[in-house]
Amino acid sequence: MQQQMLEIQEELKSKEVSSSVGGGAVSVKVNGQKELVEVKLSDEIIKEAATDKEMLEDLILTAVKNAMAEAEELAEKEMAKVTGGINIPELILKRNSRDLISLELFFLRGDYGRKIKI
User: Looking at residue 59, what DSSP letter applies?
Assistant: First the structure.
């Protein structure tokens, strides 16, 4: 199962989701690992930003948040194929000092957390 999860994580790098706000004035793309890979601004919105900078900032923030949420959904959907739909709270792939990959699951409960390595 761990190998399958690693493969899915690798595949998620090449899958992209996008979000567009302001009638297409601001568009962003995020990959399945929630890395922002592209931001596009229309010429019109750049001109408007000269007098209303906060509006542009809000549009960019909204587009990024929407794309990140979609990327999260995509990752959960892909991982569910391996986990059989079991909802794992948070999956973190981490490289250790020997450059080996360990999979750590964090289960949060109340104000404290418990870490289990597999």
Answer: H
Task: Give the type of residue at 88.
Answer: I
Question: In this structure, what token pair is assigned to residue 26?
Answer: 């601001």
Q: Nearest CA to 32 among 63, 8, 53, 52?
A: 8
pTM here is: 0.69
Give the C-alpha separation, 83 to 33, whole Å.
18
Amino acid at 14: S
Name the band, by pLDDT with cuts 50, 70 and 90, for residue 100: very low
Question: Residue 6: what pLDDT?
Answer: 80
Helix (H, G, I), strand (E, B) or coil at 99: coil
Residues 21, 25, 30, CA angle at the centre, nearest 5°? Answer: 55
Burial of 92 (0-12, 13-18, 19+ CB in 10 A): exposed
Predicted pLDDT at 87: 57
